[in-house]
Design goal:
alpha/beta, Rossmann fold, 2 domains, about 50% helix
Length: about 375
């Protein structure tokens, strides 16, 4: 085994803190070939699909990757922008916004980068850049507010596997979840309230990505965190129990996943009410195929086509200033105590900017 080192390291070089935001990933382009490559990597992760490996390999390569890429590519083509994949575009802007905030506070002592669990930019490539820039303390922030072994767990495994090859390992901290963060709950609630100001108030449906029910029964806490998120946002909006509901989307395969299923809920609502709904997806940090195509296109058409009267989708926090606030709060909380990463580094201009943002958020409420 050959460990990765820094033979040209100059002793006395300034150590840095690295913050890496990690999202799921995206195909390089909306073609069947690129989608097939992406799905092959994604669906080969044993934390995503817990099944006997040989049997799953045969199903994946013999059936799924022969049929699904063309269908998924068509869906990606509906949401692709001139800049590229919405997930990648918004994630990059979010990372850039956070980098600017931390630059204002700490100068060049803190570096921020973006990685994807599957596809590019890869976790190994980002960590390698950090190693070359003398990052000796590393904070990993998965862009999943609610922990699941299928998402955050995979990131932890990828990161630690990569760092195990380093000769000089950095001090390491992970963010498991941040759904209880006040800035996150308030950010989601404020985005809904703002949407209602222009589109009218409706029954609020929280839609979260589902996972197989057997994962939950085996101890995955994701379901509980989703429910806690919905309750926290509903409380901040002052909603009664009958003014909101929760469901799960994006199931895959034949086995039972977490219920109730959003598409079935919407069909029932279209027939018997509520016939006017607002859908929000607070488990997704940035808009992507599952929110823009599945929810805002497929499920909108399903609901309205079967008798629903109004369907409104609230975009994810994406790269908004409110989302940068959330990321900044989380980083400061989890990196607190590291040398050079405390409140003592804030200058007067940075403190004034923080006060202005707080006052602006208060005025909006």
């Amino acid at each position: 085994m050959t460990l990765l080192g820094a033979p040209d390291f100059v002793h006395g070089s300034r150590p840095r803190v690295g913050v890496v935001l990690v999202n799921l990933g995206t195909p390089a382009d909306p073609s069947p070939r690129s989608v097939r490559k992406y799905l092959a990597e994604f669906l080969s992760d044993p934390r995503v699909i817990e099944a006997p490996r040989l049997l799953w390999w045969l199903v994946l390569h013999g059936v799924i990757l022969r049929t699904r890429p063309k269908r998924s590519a068509h869906a990606y083509q509906k949401i692709w922008t001139p800049e590229g994949s919405p997930l990648l575009v918004e994630s990059r802007k979010l990372a850039a916004g956070l980098a600017a905030r931390l630059q204002q506070r700490f100068g060049d002592d803190v570096l921020v980068d973006l990685a994807m669990t599957y596809g590019q930019p890869s976790i190994p490539s980002v960590l390698d850049r950090f190693r070359e820039q003398n990052v000796q303390r590393l904070l990993v922030l998965p862009l999943y507010p609610q922990y699941s072994s299928t998402t955050t767990g995979s990131i932890f495994e990828f990161v630690t596997r990569e760092l195990s090859q380093w000769r000089w390992m950095p001090e390491l901290r992970f963010v498991n979840q941040y759904w209880e963060s006040e800035s996150y709950l308030r950010g989601v609630a404020d985005s809904i309230a703002k949407r209602w100001e222009t589109h009218g108030r409706k029954h609020l449906l929280f839609s979260f990505h589902s996972i197989p029910k057997r994962y939950f029964l085996a101890g995955d806490p994701y379901h509980c965190f989703c429910l806690g998120t919905a309750r926290g946002v509903a409380q901040r909006l002052g909603l009664a129990e009958d003014e909101w509901s929760l469901g799960f989307q994006s199931r895959f395969g034949r086995e039972e996943w977490l219920k109730p299923y959003v598409d079935m809920m919407l069909q029932d609502y279209a027939k018997s009410g509520p016939k006017r709904v607002t859908v929000v997806c607070p488990g997704f940090a940035t808009d992507c195929l599952e929110t823009l195509e599945e929810i805002s296109m497929q499920n909108r058409d399903l609901f309205l086509g079967q008798g629903g009267e109004a369907f409104d989708y609230v975009p994810c926090l994406n790269s908004s200033a409110a989302h940068v606030d959330v990321m900044e709060d989380i980083v400061l909380q989890h990196a607190g105590g590291w040398p050079g990463f405390g409140a003592e580094r804030r200058d007067d201009a940075a403190l004034a900017a923080l006060r202005e943002r707080a006052l602006a958020r208060g005025a909006q409420r």
